[in-house]
């Protein structure tokens, strides 16, 4: 479903601030795989996600989504293939619009998004049923402005919107990092439920080793713009944080020093 072939990306080339963010990165993700991504600061995790989304064009390499070469496509043209949830709960929704209006916009993705005809009774009932699965009581607040929701409620709604029309690929960019632990756990529970229900191909960046191990069926670790560990199947099921640290130190020759990943 996703093929990344020998990707390179350097920011501020030829200056004192030159930074190679992707360094020959290659990755294949099969249809229905749920891949978690871990790595220290500057490992290239967000750059990889932004390269897939088209936020930043790569310097070299090729990106294919479901066999379609999207390497040169701008961000808005890739959006038809992707669902995305950002780290900031304020991103991805229209704060001044109601919950049902936001869901209507998501449902009309790829079509002319006009609300002139309003939201039908059938649509309203559909949204109410969808919101019930979140277990947050939002089904009784369809007309509430999204800006009035808590961070966790808003992130759960954004997740629902991103998956309302089954995307080829779901990108989760540290989507629980800004939430308190209890709320983050609830959003991850909802994530698992939606991904498993719809068999969505998913790429989830996390700063938390425990979450990277607990969720998904494949784990990759990045360092210096490339993948240094790729763990799946039974090996991932049996993995512990200590095992992951040992493998990192063996492969990289360094100690993993990202405290937030270790303590999360």
Describe it:
- The protein has 264 residues and is α/β, with parallel strands linked by helices.
- It is built from 10 helices and 10 strands.
- The mean pLDDT is 87.
Structure at a glance:
This protein has 10 helices and 10 strands.
Structural features:
4-stranded antiparallel beta sheet, globular, single chain, 264 residues, alpha/beta, 6-stranded mixed beta sheet, 10 helices
Bin the helical content: 25-40%
The radius of gyration over CA amounts to 19 Å
In the predicted model, the low-confidence regions spanning at least 5 consecutive residues are none
Please work out how many helical segments DSSP would assign.
10
Fraction of residues in β-strands: 15-25%
> Termini separation (Å)?
30 Å
Summed over residues and divided by their number, the pLDDT gives a mean of: 87
Overall morphology: globular
Structural classification: alpha/beta
Walk me through the topology.
Layout: E1 2-11, E2 19-29, E3 34-39, H1 45-53, E4 60-65, E5 68-69, H2 75-78, E6 82-85, H3 99-107, H4 121-132, H5 151-163, E7 169-173, H6 181-198, E8 202-205, H7 209-214, E9 218-223, E10 226-232, H8 233-237, H9 241-252, H10 259-263
Helix pairs in contact: 3-5, 5-6
């Amino acid at each position: 479903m996703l093929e990344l072939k020998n990707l390179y990306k350097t920011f501020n080339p030829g200056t004192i601030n030159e930074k190679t963010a992707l360094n020959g990165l290659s990755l294949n993700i099969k249809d229905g795989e749920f891949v978690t991504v871990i790595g220290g600061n500057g490992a290239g995790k967000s750059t990889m996600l932004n390269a897939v989304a088209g936020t930043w064009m790569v310097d070299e390499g090729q990106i294919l989504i479901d066999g379609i070469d999207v390497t040169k496509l701008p961000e808005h043209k890739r959006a038809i293939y992707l669902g995305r949830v950002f780290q900031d709960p304020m991103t991805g929704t229209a704060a001044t619009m109601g919950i049902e209006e936001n869901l209507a916009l998501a449902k009309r993705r790829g079509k002319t998004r006009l609300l002139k005809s309003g939201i039908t009774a059938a649509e309203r009932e559909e949204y109410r049923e969808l919101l019930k699965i979140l277990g947050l009581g939002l089904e009784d607040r369809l007309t509430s402005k999204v800006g009035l929701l808590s961070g966790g409620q808003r992130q759960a709604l954004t997740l629902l919107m991103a998956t309302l029309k089954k995307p080829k690929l779901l990108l989760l960019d540290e989507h629980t990092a800004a939430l308190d632990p209890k709320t983050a756990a609830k959003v991850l529970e909802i994530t698992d439920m939606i991904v498993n229900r719809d068999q969505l191909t998913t790429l989830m960046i996390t700063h938390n080793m425990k979450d990277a191990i607990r969720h998904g069926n494949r784990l990759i670790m990045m360092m210096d713009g490339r993948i240094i560990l790729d763990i799946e199947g039974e090996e991932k099921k049996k993995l512990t944080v200590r095992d992951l640290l040992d493998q990192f130190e063996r492969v990289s020759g360094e100690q993993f020093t990202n405290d937030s990943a270790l303590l999360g």
